[in-house]
Design a protein that fits this description.
- By secondary structure, the protein is α/β, with parallel strands linked by helices.
- The protein has one domain (2-334): TIM Barrel (Alpha-Beta Barrel).
- 52% of the residues lie in helices and 13% in strands.
- It is built from 17 helices and eight strands.
- The protein has an eight-stranded parallel beta sheet with strand order 1-2-3-4-5-6-7-8.
- Strand 5, helix 10 (201-211) and strand 6 form a beta-alpha-beta unit.
- Helix 5 (71-87) runs parallel beside helix 7 and helix 16 (299-312) packs antiparallel against helix 17 (317-334).
- The longest helix is centred in the middle third of the chain and has 18 residues, at 109-126.
- It starts with a helix and ends with a helix.
- The structure holds hypoxanthine (HPA) and zinc ion.
- Its cofactor is Zn(2+).
- Belongs to the metallo-dependent hydrolases superfamily. Adenosine and AMP deaminases family. Adenine deaminase type 2 subfamily.
- GO terms for molecular function: adenine deaminase activity; zinc ion binding.
- The active site is at residue 197.
Length: 335
């Protein structure tokens, strides 16, 4: 299956660019920018990545981002991730970025978005990888702060496909951001939100009803509401599931207990994604391999994760048709 997964064309829909900062690059940037970090070797950084829940991860993740100061740093970060995409046959990616993690440290919004966008543009021409950018609001901060960030983003609207919601889910339900999401929809932007990762199934319902999301990030706790599961299957509301992330953050005890295959077989539009690959132990292939290693899945079912991701992506119908053909042609030769 490893070879099949490696060559399978893949689409990533849930990837935080700040979560692709590998310890080696963290060290390089710390040195280049003369930023102090509380570790003496990349090995020590890796050993610190033992998480008990979402918050224990977020504390370390926000600290890691402190080494990102200049446009070139954001370019290097994004370019390194795109190299992984290239090596792993990821043909399209929709990337989250968290501007508030940077603007709160005095980094201009423009520095962040221009560094990331320049790498995405270069990957389009040099690597043939297409992409979209999704700006996330940090839900532990206020809605006023999100609105201020949204206003800073408006001059760069053409570079952004949509807005999302991430960070601490407990105590910060989707409806806290109804107003800023309505502003985004009024500007023609699509919306997504993390919901039902650590928070209750109720958050998935409010993300759909109050924030008008086109897909739900994680969403695995939907199983706590049978009616909701039926509704997600009927409407084909996509869930961007992140298997290795869910194990690392103790959402499930182990991969055997993960519900992604069960949801796939119930007809939900579930997809496989890497979330924060530098922190959670792997990129797209590692996530596919972890699921395939723990669950009974044939080639058609594994390819269905990519077909679902194409259906759930923010690209044109023509682009979807071309990518679907690529996957079906691959499946035909792989049997
Ligand atoms: N959940 C919430 N916030 C995040 C995550 C996540 O999985 N990754 C990065 N920010
Ligand atoms: Zn995430």
């Amino acid at each position: 299956m490893q070879k099949f997964i490696q060559k399978l064309p893949k689409i990533e829909l849930h990837l935080h660019i700040e979560g692709t900062l590998e310890p080696e690059l963290m060290f390089e940037l710390a040195k280049r920018n003369q930023v102090e970090i509380p570790y003496s070797t990349p090995e020590e950084v890796k050993n610190a990545y033992q998480f008990t829940d979402l918050q224990s991860f977020l504390d370390i993740y926000y600290q890691g981002a402190n080494v990102l100061l200049h446009e070139q740093d954001f370019f290097d970060l994004t370019w390194a991730y795109l190299q992984h995409c290239h090596e792993e046959n990821v043909i399209h990616t929709e990337i989250f970025f968290d501007p508030q993690t940077h603007t709160s440290r005095g980094i201009p919004f423009k520095t962040v978005i221009q560094g990331i966008s320049r790498a995405l543009e270069q990957a389009r021409t040099e690597l043939g990888i297409s992409s979209q950018l999704i700006m996330c609001f940090l839900r532990h901060l206020s809605e006023e702060d999100a609105i201020e960030t949204f206003n800073q983003a408006l001059p760069y609207k053409t570079l952004i496909a949509g807005v999302g919601l991430d960070s601490s889910e407990q105590g910060h339900p989707p409806e806290k951001f109804s107003k800023v999401f309505a502003m985004a929809r009024n500007e023609g932007l699509l919306t997504v939100a993390h919901a039902g990762e650590e928070g209750p199934a109720e958050n998935i319902i409010t993300a759909i009803n109050d924030l008008g999301v086109s897909r739900v990030d994680h969403g695995v706790r939907c199983v706590e509401d049978k009616k909701l599961v039926r509704q997600l299957a009927e409407t084909r509301m996509p869930l961007t599931v992140c298997p290795l992330s869910n194990i690392k953050l103790c959402v499930f005890e182990n991969m055997q207990q993960h519900n992604i295959t069960d949801l796939l077989k119930k007809g939900l539009c579930v997809t496989i994604n890497s979330d924060d690959p530098a922190y959670f132990g792997g990129y797209m292939n590692a996530n596919f391999m972890a699921v395939a290693g723990a669950h009974e899945l044939n080639k058609n079912e594994l390819a269905q994760f990519t077909l679902n991701a194409i259906e759930a992506s923010f690209i044109t119908e023509e682009e979807k048709d071309a990518m679907t053909k690529l996957v079906l042609d691959y499946l035909a030769t792989a049997h």
